[in-house]
Amino acid sequence: MSDRGHIPESRQREAPRADLKWIGRSMKRVEDPRLLVGKGIYTDDVNLPEMAHAAVLRSPHAHARIVSIDVSRAAALPGVLCVMTGADAAKVCDPLPTWASPPVLQPVIADDRVRHVGEAVAAVAAEDRYIAEDACELIEVEYEPLPPVVDPEEALTSTGDAVLHPERGDTNIALERTLSFGPVEEDFAAADLVIERRFRWPRSGGQPLETVGAVASFDEGAGRFTIQCNTSMYNYCGWMIASTLRVAPHKLNIVPTLAGGSFGSKMFVHKVPVLAAVLARAVGRPVKFMEDRIDNTTSCDNHASDRVYYAKLALKRDGTLLSLKTRIIDDYGAFLQFGVGQHGNALSQCVGPYRINSVEVDLAAVLTNKCQQGAYRGFGSEVANFVIERLVDAAADELGVDRIALRRQNFIRPDQFPYLIPTGNMYDSGNYQAVLDETLKLADLEHWRAQQTEARKAGRYIGIGVATCQERSVFSATEFWMWNLEQGVEWTSSPDGVSVKIDPTGKAFVTLHSPFWGNSPETVAAQVLAEQLTIDPADIEITYSDTDQGLNSTGPGGSRFTVMVTGAIVGAASQIREKMLRIAAHLMEADVRDLALEDGAVHVKGVPDMKMSIAELADKAHYYRLSMPDDLDLTSGLDATYVYDHPVTTLPDPDERHMGIFYPIMGHSCHIPVVEVDVETGQVHFLHYAAVHDCGTMVNPMTLEGHIRGGTVNGIGTALFEEFAYDEAGQLTTALWTDYLIPTIKEAPADIVVGHVETPSPFTEYGVKGGGEGGRMGGPPAIAAAIEDALKPLGVTIDSLPLPPSRLRALIRKAQGRAA
Amino acid sequence: MAQVSVSFTVNGREVTATVDPRTLLVHFLREELKLTGTHVGCDTSQCGACTVHLDGRPAKSCALLAVQLEGCAITTIEGVAGADGMHPMQSAFKEHHGLQCGFCTPGMVMMGIDIASRHDAPSEETIRSELEGNLCRCTGYHNIVRSIAAGAQSMRG
Description:
The complex is a heterodimer. In chain A, 61% of the residues are buried. Chain A is of the alpha+beta class. In chain A, helix 12 (381-399) runs parallel beside helix 20, helix 16 runs parallel beside helix 17 (561-587) and helix 19 (701-720) crosses helix 20 (774-790). By secondary structure, chain B is an alpha+beta fold. Chain B has two domains: 4-79, Roll (Ubiquitin-like (UB roll)); 88-156, Orthogonal Bundle (DNA polymerase, domain 1), CATH 1.10.150.120. Chain B has five helices and five strands, in the order E-E-H-E-E-E-H-H-H-H. Chain B has a five-stranded mixed beta sheet with strand order 2-1-5-3-4, covered by helices on one side. In chain B, strand 3 and strand 4 (57-60) form a beta hairpin. At the A-B interface, helix 1 and helix 19 of A face helix 1, helix 2, helix 3 and helix 5 of B.
């Protein structure tokens, strides 16, 4: 075993092939009809008899002690069923689930102090939402303000009253650690050149159109909760909600509804279902709590990475990249939901597509008076992409070489896969040169370089950016391990299950144990099962399990769904196929080795007329037990369940020399935007945008392109407009979509030209890789590079995002001032 | 607060109700009539997920009070399809992958039908200009534009 670990044998059963019928086809989506006619059931569309409605009073202060709360006027309002304070909630539930070790305790309603604007101070259940909101206004709270902590670097030295969680010690540093992989000091000593930059990555968030919601009910007789909500990981760790509610895990059933978008923000929804559940138990009726937009922006699970980087890239004069060192201060807000998993995530691909020999990350996770962080498309890896790409651009500029040429020189070569990076994670496969070549073709670089030259003569500023980014997929549980100071959640499983049944008439039923959260789970499942059983996707019905019925399933987060459900369906379908072949062999008096499943029937090879259709076999399997051998494998029916484990992971090294393989199904992308910057207004216009992604074997190119384009526009939002901005007092100044600017159709490029390279994974079924996050992981560094290139004549350097017109104008003014 | 009586039609059906005067149209449609296809996204009229047709023109139902609608005709996403299945604009969204999570989709379809009714063969530029008030977080808008162009063509027959 090397210092980087070892690579296990592949467990792939289905190799990619050219003659696939359904996989690779842009099949129209199975999910669409009900969504299009307004009949999809999202959480807010759930209505139960006697259902009450909740609203939440939220803190107007960033940091304060709660001196007193008087709820008497609110409780007396006609139609109010219950008013619950933090003290009341603490009597009936425990702190919210967390992956942080040691934990940062987070109450569902603030106890004696509020730690960010928007934190819940009291909750009301009433006959309708209007009354519940009225009641919130009647609650009188006396606060004693405490010093707000807003700047992450200042949070490093907070003491006294400025400390958010004094029980953890007199500091706002939740965790500080250095992880080092490979000979960092030697590599830096051997370097001819060290590029040093400070970067600032802004706090943005998924902000799906639908907020988070839950409809909870409590059956007093059974002592049991049912919660319908738009969460994702309910079949992996939904039981944690039961612990918070102080019931045994089997006394909680979580039923997924459709989610109106997530982008990670509904990965493990915890506050909202717990709140609805404690209110439901208190009032003895079902309670719906649907966040409004301010509930969501001020107190959701989806504020994302908010980082300051001090980064150093060591390289040789000939352009050979050697080592990367980063000091990161990450502003986690008031609590640590996922620990610092976002940094484990980033270590899966922190060297980008380049041969870099060693890496050191020195992380300080600080607590400030802001909403907690959660997950957003990239989960921290998008920030690492931005940092490495900006450093490579800077290195090329410093060396006076072409930015594309320096990338090419340092790319991992196709013959080097599978490839272990210094952190121990594996890149399973790739062809970065091919992706770059294809993008350059689509981008028509020569044309735009000529346009740029002409434009500059005319005083216009056109720029071209190139980013070559990793797009890791299929996360596994060990990504969370190494950062914990104490032993934390040290799970090693991250499977996904599926149940498949063929009914007596030959129709297929698939039960998924992961939810719909805006992706295409039903379409993927239908295509893969159709491929496996040679049936028509129109003959497949797909439903979602609740936790009562659920199999261990980690869910779609971390670009897992397509790979994992493909694997699970291959497993289940092979059991069904084997049983059909055995039944057919018996009934047709043939050797099972002479049979084949094709076009919906089992036939004797070379004798096309000797066959039985799947419908005939299903009928026999269900109703004709006495026609079969008395074999325990041939019990009546035709069904299978299968839990597919992560295709390839290894344990972290006990001595922390490496993290093991934890995020190995490695996609890649190249983005080349062409922008024009109006230096008078600071506006950025996209003249062209080319993006090529390699997500291995494509299951459905149409939906993959949808993800790429949509993700890229998310990336444009992050790069140019979006920021959860807190002022010095800790007020969120962008709490509504009037100020938090998600791209409208006017900001989205008229066309994003999308291309593909397919380098199949040798480890997954059919060679599929995940592709849910790549657009946002590739867009920001490419856009930053394009803007910098446009403003090169002015000498503007881009180190921080976002770049709305006001900030870009400030940079331009500063540069022009320098020139003058 | 004194309740107010109001009568209007929704999807061709007469509705007479006594409502709290502050009731938003979108809440009336969703809570009273259980027409949950019309969605609430942003609460501040930015996103357009709540778009319905008011006397044949698109309107954001989160920015209207139910009591304003005396004598008006409202059409929601549930009311656009004929007896034989989807409206051509809905079919076009399916054909061109104009939706992912589907939450903005009812508003987009209602806008699409309106755009098609006011523009003969709307250009991409026209569609993009008309959709300024409707947000989608999933698609990057590309396929929504294509869907509306195709839907408009189908509607012309």
